[in-house]
Design a protein that fits this description.
- By secondary structure, the protein is an all-alpha fold.
- The protein has one domain: Up-down Bundle (Ferritin).
- Helix content is 73%, strand content 0%.
- Helix 1 runs antiparallel to helix 2, helix 1 packs across helix 3 and helix 1 packs antiparallel against helix 4.
- The longest helix has 28 residues.
- The radius of gyration is 16 Å and the shape is globular.
Length: 155
């Protein structure tokens, strides 16, 4: 079967990007405090970006004759991004730190995809992984800058 490992990474991303969308939603819904007027609408952009990545990744998987996860149960069973019940007791800083942690996981998964798709000779998927890893690292940099921290990107 062609591109077997690449398809596995793509489907992992389907589950993880779906979960990441919920983590961002939770951040969007459960934020209070300084920066709210700026950060609340910014989460809309973050969700749009993640959902765009999810669509591209899913459609690429289909193009390779794969079958993307498509139920909430499949997403929950396969994601590596943790979730927690929404509460009002997290600070904005804590919520943003959670986003950074999860974006770092996605960047690492994109790196894995770069390596696997390269080894399997799937240049088109590798380009997608490279583009999204770059975008994810930029997102990390921007959130970290907001938190007064260096990006700490391990490229």
């Amino acid at each position: 079967m062609k591109y077997t490992k690449t398809k596995a990474v793509l489907n992992q991303l389907v589950a993880d990007l779906s979960q990441m969308s919920m983590v961002i939603h939770q951040t969007h819904w459960y934020m209070r405090g300084n920066g709210f007027l700026t950060l609340h609408p910014m989460m809309d952009k973050f969700m749009d970006d993640i959902n765009d990545q999810l669509d591209v990744v899913s459609e690429r998987l289909i193009t390779l004759d794969g079958a993307p996860f498509s139920t909430l149960q499949e997403m929950a069973d396969h994601t590596e991004i943790t979730d927690e019940t929404g509460t009002w007791d997290h600070t904005m800083t804590e919520r943003l730190a959670t986003l950074v942690k999860d974006y770092r996981y996605l960047a690492d998964l994109y790196q894995k995809g770069i390596e696997i798709s390269g080894a399997e000779g799937d240049d088109s998927t590798q380009d997608i992984f490279i583009e999204f890893k770059t975008a994810t690292e930029k997102r990390i940099w921007m959130i970290q800058a907001h938190l007064g921290k260096a990006p700490e990107i391990d490229a």
